[in-house]
Design a protein that fits this description.
By secondary structure, the protein is α/β, with parallel strands linked by helices. The protein contains seven helices and ten strands. It has one domain: 3-Layer(aba) Sandwich (Rossmann fold). It is 34% helix and 28% strand. Strands 1, 2, 3, 4, 5, 6, 7, 8, 9 and 10 form a ten-stranded mixed sheet that branches.
Amino acid sequence: MATPHIESNLEDIAEVVLMPGDPLRAKYIAEEFLTDYKLINTVRNMYGYTGYYKGKRITVFASGMGVPSIGIYSYELYKFYHVEKIIRIGTSGSFHKDVKLLDVVLSTGAYCKSYFDQLLDNQDINYVEASHNLNDKIKKVAEDAHIPLKVGKTITSDVFDLYADSEDVFRTNFPGDDYLSVEMEAFGLFYVAKKLGREASCLMTVVDSFYDKRSLSSEDRERSLDQMIELALDTAVL
């Protein structure tokens, strides 16, 4: 079978999917963490791979950037390929004083001012929660592995946060000060999962912050991302 954006056969895709934004990160995860993997999608260079991690079959499938893009791929994977769980793994910014560079954030839900929900099914919902069940598994795996997590709400923005004219301008468009991270996809994933009765979570490594202006080395960034990837993979095999 195929959809407008995925060329894979039904049997090519596992029921659990890790979803980075960057197609090259999907390639990296397959090459570094999976065994017996194969490339199962190249449409629009949105790479997907299926292989094995600790004996369990896992698919890694890129989403691209923004709510519309992750909305397309998550919808088609859930609806037509019978995927049960998607864990988004990516990077984020933060303007919360307690969240520092390279912290790993687990989203409990995402707020967004997009029209995605209204155009998809005439809803007006600005906040959608992640899967409690899947998040509980991630927290347990993190605890057992002694990986510190920052757990809280996420802002999903249509604008890359560093391009905003000022922190004040950016903040005035979102409610409250208890949002830990700013990214561009989680709301779309959570909304589609809720609509289709599936599970979705979002793990992020913080790579820019209004409060922490350090410059990250490529080694620091890769090491932190690898920790997040392994956390998601170890959750996926449960």
